[in-house]
TrEMBL record:
Protein's UniProt name: 3-isopropylmalate dehydrogenase
NCBIfam families xref list: leuB (TIGR00169)
Family, as annotated: Belongs to the isocitrate and isopropylmalate dehydrogenases family. LeuB type 1 subfamily.
E.C. code: 1.1.1.85
Biochemical pathway: Amino-acid biosynthesis; L-leucine biosynthesis; L-leucine from 3-methyl-2-oxobutanoate: step 3/4
Organism expressing this protein natively: Cereibacter johrii
List of residues binding substrate: R97, R107, R135, D226
Function field: Catalyzes the oxidation of 3-carboxy-2-hydroxy-4-methylpentanoate (3-isopropylmalate) to 3-carboxy-4-methyl-2-oxopentanoate. The product decarboxylates to 4-methyl-2 oxopentanoate.
Cofactor binding mode and count: Binds 1 Mg(2+) or Mn(2+) ion per subunit.
Binding site for NAD(+): 77-90, 289-301
Record site feature (Important for catalysis), residues: Y142, K193
Assembly and interaction partners: Homodimer.
Keywords from the UniProt entry: Amino-acid biosynthesis, Branched-chain amino acid biosynthesis, Cytoplasm, Leucine biosynthesis, Magnesium, Manganese, Metal-binding, NAD, Oxidoreductase
Amino acid sequence: MANPSLLILAGDGIGPEVMAEVKRIIGWFGEKRGVTFDVSEDLVGGAAYDAHGKPLADETMAKAQEVDAVLLGAVGGPKYDVLDFSVKPERGLLRLRKEMDLYANLRPAQCFDALADFSSLKREIVAGLDIMIVRELTSGVYFGEPRGIFPDNEGGRFGVNTQRYTTEEIRRVARSAFELARRRNNRVCSMEKANVMESGILWREEVQWVHDNEYPDVELSHMYADNGAMQLVRWPRQFDVIVTDNLFGDILSDCAAMLTGSLGMLPSASLGAPMANGRPKALYEPVHGSAPDIAGQGKANPIACILSFAMALRYSFDMGEEATRLEKAVETVLADGVRTADLMGPEGGTPVSTSGMGDAVLAALD
Ligand code: NAI
Ligand code: MG
């Protein structure tokens, strides 16, 4: 069988720096575990614009559609602020998400024990936390028509956005959540505002339909999203998989992420429909951006990008065991007190560099 294929788009700023550590880890898996990938590399964002005047070349887009998974670093930077909106680095990433139709955005919120004191919540509330928020990514109020700012009859203006979801849009993201739940702890909590929004009523009915007809073995509960926000900070460990729409998911996933500490730790995945080989279309990327303030200084924490690769191992390549091996290595390194600058508490200490963190993870893998 052909090796699984991986397209690496390192991008801008700290993107190439954190990706360099992932490439070493990919090398380790090939050498030590006999797990090899067909890896290709290309440009995205400002790097692509500098090379050929577009934030994502058509050939790169075509390649992304063919591979089993895309791994992206970060895009953007102050140098590109002057560019026209149509060629801004972010447009490269948006094009990937849109044309690959990546409708399920997976944002884990996992608390590593060694970092529990970094949370804005008490250790006893976040220790052991491991939840997954599935956010619908391609529809809802960010895309619905009509939208715009219009003049009213009294000489003022009004703004309009439309929350619109179809049955199929809800069902497909619900399926992603139930599939995930089966690989985890078999529990899904769906969040909307069915009490005040018709689109919320439909959301609740359709998620329930998918459950009853296709995933009756998974435990399903429903919660109003505002209560969900309260519960996330009150007692986050009550949740396992949360599925919600684009707007609520944007807010709830950022909120959940901060329960666990630094931006430099947070991975993500965006999944689409299954391809001919059964694997979902997939893009993996750290949540953070290109961090221009620390780019080029070897200070960036590569863990978010490393954990994004671990998600690729699990969700695209069905290598859950290898994914766990990598996550355990990260956990060991953190438990040993290895810290990049973003993970230093007020007590201080000496931070390791980006490659120093990569060295430590490789050593822990060995
Ligand atoms: P950012 O995530 O790049 O940085 C925010 C803060 O977190 C900075 O102080 C940065 O140094 C720190 N930080 C981020 N990642 C880190 C890491 N791995 N290790 C240590 N510290 C880290 O967000 P910001 O500053 O709002 O945006 C900077 C640029 O990145 C902009 O051009 C923005 O458009 C772009 N961006 C790109 C994203 C992407 O590629 N998915 C997402 C967010 C922003
Ligand atoms: Mg957000």
